[in-house]
Each structure stands twice: as structure tokens, then as C-alpha cells.
Amino acid sequence: MALPSPDPKFDLRGIDAEVNSLHFSCMVQRPSQPLLFSGSSNGLVHVWNLNTRRSETVLSGHQGKSIYWLHTLFHNRELLLSQGRDLQIRTWNLAEGRREEIDSVPVESVGFCKCSLLKTESCLLAMPGKDSSQVQVLDLNSKKIVSSMKLSTDNQWGMAMCMKLWQPISGPSPLLLVGYEDGSVALWNVLEHRLMSRLTCHMEPVMSLDFDCLKARGASGSSERVLNVWSLDEQQNLKAYKTQELVNPGISDVVLRQDRKILATAGWDHRIRVFGWKRMKPLAVLQYHSAIVHCVSFSDHLTPEDRLLAAGSKDHLISLWSVYQNT
């Protein structure tokens, strides 16, 4: 049984719109301040100082369209990527207090598929392609498409809904996991543009997924009343691993903490659920929001006891929680 819900450590207010995306940048030494970036349904990005718990900067560049993915360029917190419903991925220069949009990459898909970023010898960005099931990988430095992956036959999988780009320990090519509208998860070899394996995990579209490349296990959620866990065998075949039943249907977001000890989900039932990743043991059901929770994110603080879990909701609030630091 999960423990009773504690109270959040604090919340962030004043956005006046649904919170659709979150991203932390806390891997800094003093006097630098830990930051949280939030993207909202009114096209604004708020940059929050977690020490003062106030918004220090507001970015507006997506023509009032919803922002559903944010990511700093790895440890360079002065460069921020934002993906919006205006079909643009914009790059922001935040150095020395600036708020400059310095680049933009068009997105040809009108869906809600979030990008995924990977640092190899270059910066690779996985993004939805023009056709509904097509996915592409862009080299951010050269702005060239290095891979384009889609079915060679008629599309029976539907739209690409979510993705995770990662680099295996062995093998030169990055691999891309994609969740599709038909409820399946597929694994692609990026450099060979080749489908490696596919598993039907859900009866409904895959809303979100995350993957642990060290344990070769991932998790995915949909509108169903289940959280599905799956694995990769030594032949890179996707296999069903475990199905975690939920009390209420609907998962908007699935995120693993960086230490791969706990997993959090954002629920349509207004709740955040926390699981132990090793055995998928329910640890807590966090209750605070009064509407759908759209997104969850774990902070990357250098000190484990400082690490936080953030959740953004349709109720215009961001809640921040201190959970199970030693789990």
C-alpha cells in the first residue's frame, strides 16, 4: 500500500494558464541559482528561481500556442529549447539576463509528440516527421536530418505520440523508442533507419514513456487504468515485463528519476503516483491538484537531499515535492 499523501514542499503560482511542460536546471554551484522552466498553454515559458520561488523571466515566442516540451542544451543552461503548437522548436539565449530567440526549427507534424534530446559527439534531436508515423533525428549543429524512420507499408500504427532517444553501451548507433497511436512501442536503429522490434503494450494511444538504458527496461502510460513496464532482451527485442494496475484511468506523463530508483506518473485523476523502479512497488499517491496533472519532472540537484519532484497541472499550479531521497 502507498503511504498517505504528504503536503508539497511548496507551490508556484501566477501562471494563469495550464502547465504542460517542466524542466529543471539545478546542477550548479553557488552562487548560481537552481532553476525550473515551465511551459504553459498560453505560449509562455516561465523561468523560476527555486530559492526565491519567483518567476525571474518570462519568454514569449510561440504566438500564444501551447508549449509542451522544454530542455536546456545539457549543462549549458543559457541555451533553452522550447517546442510549441505553433510548429516550431525555438532556441533561446538566456545568457546575462537576455531573452533572445536565436534560432528556430520547423516541425511538420501537427500532433503532440514531444522531442527527445541526446548528447553524443553532437547534439541529436528526435522529432516527429511530416507523415503521422514518421520520426526524424536532427543534428542540431549542422541542422541536417541524419535519420528518417517510418513504415515502408501503409501506416497502421497511427501517429507517433512520444519518444525517447538514447545511446546503448555497445554499438555505434543511437536507438529511438517511439510510442504510437495504436498502443505499440517500437525500437529503431537511428543510423540504419531500421525497425528493430515492436511491442503492443496498450489498447489505447501511448501518451508517454521513459527508459532505463542500464536496466534495459522502460515504462509507458495511456488513457487506460494501467502502467506497463517492458524490457529489451539481448537481441534487442521488446518484451512485456509487468503491468501495474491503477485505481483510476489516464496517465499524461511517465518519468524516471536520474538515479533510476523511483518513477513518477502524472494522472488524469489529479494525482501524482510514485513507484519504486526496481520492483514497481507503489510508494506514494500525492494529492494536491484540482485538475489533470499534465507533466512531472525530477530535479538534477547535485546534493541528493535537495532533489525535488515537480508537477504541472491544468489548474495553473506547479507543486514541488521532496520524496524518498534514499529509496
TrEMBL record:
The keyword Transcription does not apply. Gene3D superfamilies: YVTN repeat-like/Quinoprotein amine dehydrogenase. InterPro entries: WD40/YVTN_repeat-like_dom_sf (IPR015943), WD40_repeat_dom_sf (IPR036322), WD40_rpt (IPR001680). Pfam families: WD40 (PF00400). Keywords: Repeat, WD repeat. It comes from the Eukaryota. WD repeats lie at residues 31-58, 199-240, 286-327. PROSITE patterns: WD_REPEATS_2 (PS50082), WD_REPEATS_REGION (PS50294). This is Guanine nucleotide-binding protein subunit beta-like protein 1.
